[in-house]
Design goal:
This protein is an alpha+beta fold and about 210 residues long. It is built from four helices and seven strands; from the N terminus they run αββαβββααββ. A hairpin with a 5-residue loop joins strand 1 and strand 2. It is elongated, with a radius of gyration of 44 Å.
Amino acid sequence: NNRQPEPTTQYNNQATLTFTMLSSSLLRFARSTAPATAANRLTAITARGRTLSSATAPAVATDDAYDGPPSVFDKIIKITIIDPSGARRSIPAMIGQSLYAACDLNGVDLGPASMGEAQAKVRSDTWTEPLYGEGATSGFDHVLLQENNEGVKLAEPAYSNEVKMLEDYWDEDEIFSGSRLASMVLINEKMDGMVVYVPDRIVDDIP
């Protein structure tokens, strides 16, 4: 009754045990290495994403390069008014408005304004566009501009009707090369610091 197992059966049992142990070892190895492999893949994907983002993302302005939003003060310059007594007064003037408007807003009396539309506009060194406006309609707002100011050199020149109004309203010895009607002069940024002389007013309230 104490018969020994046949050699074939014993061999099969040992093979089965060996296969089971080998399978368990392989499974444990796979489980131990799988998280690391996934982590490595995730790291590689993240690195590639960062490289792509840094290569394609637009440059972001730093605080040093950002000057803030535009301000109305960027469009305001200062001009100096000299009245007939020689007193000086600095007033603000907005780029694009007329010299007459700047003086009027700051209480500088220039008399009635010349309200006509511009006769022409210089577009380039070779082309002056006719605008067919009536130009100056009176000559009360006579001023003398600082001729060596860069902004004065860039201003529109006095057209025929403005010259005619100056000659009709003022004597010959009161008109100079810097004479202009304030309503016909538009403020530009190069006029910052410009000096404007206001001569004695002529009577404009006779009924």
